[in-house]
């Protein structure tokens, strides 16, 4: 069940022309027999675990995994039993050097992070099978801009982890006095060696949360 704040934001979006066109375009592709990930019922999965005031950390990705059985609505996450994708494998590598008690799990399901207050959000929420970025510029960017602006305004203070150019572009209007903004390269094998490894974003996020009197994220709880 989508949490109440997000339900209101989605209802407001549904009244806007861009959103109606976005949904029409996706419905048309599905009707043509094209496979769209994630499944329709999982598109808003990230908004089912925590409401707007409960967010401690936002990890912003690009678009969902485009391989079969991978995307399930949480950025970078895959269901148990699915091979850990390269970007997530690199996230685990960084965690193993950044968080003292981290042990690399045998699966890629990040649901336990979501349950602790981590919003695992992509800038684009759907993708065509086998076609990375195929739903870029359909309208999702406008929707996620609205989500981020609501968090910026109405959350009391959280950590924005922005990996890669797409995510960092989203961070330009975030209030840096109220929130912590951590920028870095994307964990993709194409860019992880440009400064993602060694960024220590996970420990930095927890240090900031604890300074604010909040409980940090147990990154090892997977």
Which word captures the global form?
globular
Radius of gyration: 17 Å
What share of residues are in beta strands? 5-15%
Termini separation:
22 Å
Instruction: Summarize the biggest pleated sheet.
Output: 4 strands, parallel
Please provide a written account of the structure.
This protein is an alpha/beta fold and 222 residues long. The chain contains 7 helices and 6 strands, in the order ααββααββαβαβα. The protein has helices at residues 4-14, 17-31, 86-98, 111-116, 140-154, 164-170, 201-211; strands spanning 36-37, 57-61, 118-122, 127-128, 159-163, 180-184. The strands form 2 sheets. It has a 4-stranded parallel beta sheet. Helix 6 links the parallel strand 5 and strand 6 (180-184). The chain is globular and about 50 Å long. It starts with a helix and ends in an 11-residue tail after the last helix. 37% of the residues are buried. The model has no long low-confidence stretch (mean pLDDT 95).
Overview features:
222 residues; alpha/beta; two-stranded antiparallel sheet; 7 helices
Task: Give a quick summary of the entry.
With 222 residues, this protein is an alpha/beta fold.
Layout: helices, strands, pairs:
Elements: H1 4-14, H2 17-31, E1 36-37, E2 57-61, H3 86-98, H4 111-116, E3 118-122, E4 127-128, H5 140-154, E5 159-163, H6 164-170, E6 180-184, H7 201-211
